[in-house]
Amino acid sequence: MTRFTTAMVAGALIAATALPGATSSSAQLKREADSRGDVERVTENPDGTTDRVDRPRHRDGDIVSIQATHGDRRVYVVVRYADLIRRADMQLRAPVRAFKGGEARQYQIRSANGTSDDRLNRPLLLVGDNPADMSDTGCRAVEASVDFAADVWRASVSRSCLGRPYSVVVATQYFRQLSFDVDTETYLWDRHRVNVRLHRGQQR
Ligand SMILES: [Ca+2]
Predict the structure, then answer these.
(1) pLDDT attached to residue 195
(2) CA 71 – CA 69 distance, rounded (Å)
(3) 37 CA distance to ligand 1 centroid (A)?
(4) 74-81 and 40-44: which strand pairing?
(5) Over 50: is that where the pLDDT of 23 sits?
(6) Which residues does 76 contact at the CB level (< 8 Å), separation at least 6?
(7) For the chain, first and last CA: distance in Å?
(8) Contact partners, residue 110, CB within 8 Å, separation at least 6
């Protein structure tokens, strides 16, 4: 199994500030571009140091945009990549920070989609403030699919599985493990985050 690291989710944990309520009664949607050519090769060393090497010509897994929607019943995310190749060792992730009543919980939609085994590809909703120790919520109302021809990943989760939050912060990560042993892990990754919020009055 992949070991989780603080670095992997750092981008998702930044925007934790409480957000003012919006006035729109419709679903909220936000789309943002992500830089191209910013995939990194990361090595976490036994002494706790981390080496990062830019891979500007690496297109596979390079996130180019994220679109998040906070609807009345579900949170949706659509991620586009410069290129996306089916690989057994990749994970497509969408960290979702859900705010309600002054508290926030950290979730993550996770989808592998690297094999033809649908059981392994079944998307999961994880929860936990410690990115190294997240647990499966058992939520069945989580969906994900990959269009490799279009280099697009689509995922969604019901608001009930997120505790019916009044606002969410949605992020995304591409993660591909290259090597792993007890002391050292090397992986390719890219990440982006986007803020989407929903007015309290729309809680259901
Ligand atoms: Ca990118």
Answers:
(1) 83
(2) 6
(3) 6
(4) unpaired
(5) no
(6) 67, 68, 69, 154, 155, 156
(7) 36
(8) 91, 92, 93, 94, 123, 124, 125, 126
Q: How big, in percent rounded to 5, are the helix, strand and coil portions of the chain?
A: 10, 50, 45
Residues within 5 Å of ion ligand 1 by Cβ?
34-35, 38, 62-63, 190
| Structure tokens belonging to residue 3 | 């070991």
Instruction: Name the CATH superfamily, with its identifier, for domain 28-202.
Output: Immunoglobulins (2.60.40.10)
Distance (angstroms) between ligand 1 centre and the Cα of 36 equals 4
| Interval 151-165: pLDDT, tens | 999 999 999 999 999
Contact 172, 190 (CB under 8 A): no
- Rounded distance between C-alpha atoms, residue 79 and residue 170, angstroms: 11
Residue 89 Cα to ligand 1 midpoint, Å, equals 19
What does the chain come to in residues?
204
Whether the model clears a pTM of 0.85, i.e. scores above it, the answer is no
* Per-residue pLDDT tens over the stretch 162-192: 999 989 999 999 999 999 888 899 999 999 9
Helix (H) or strand (E) holding 7: helix 6-9
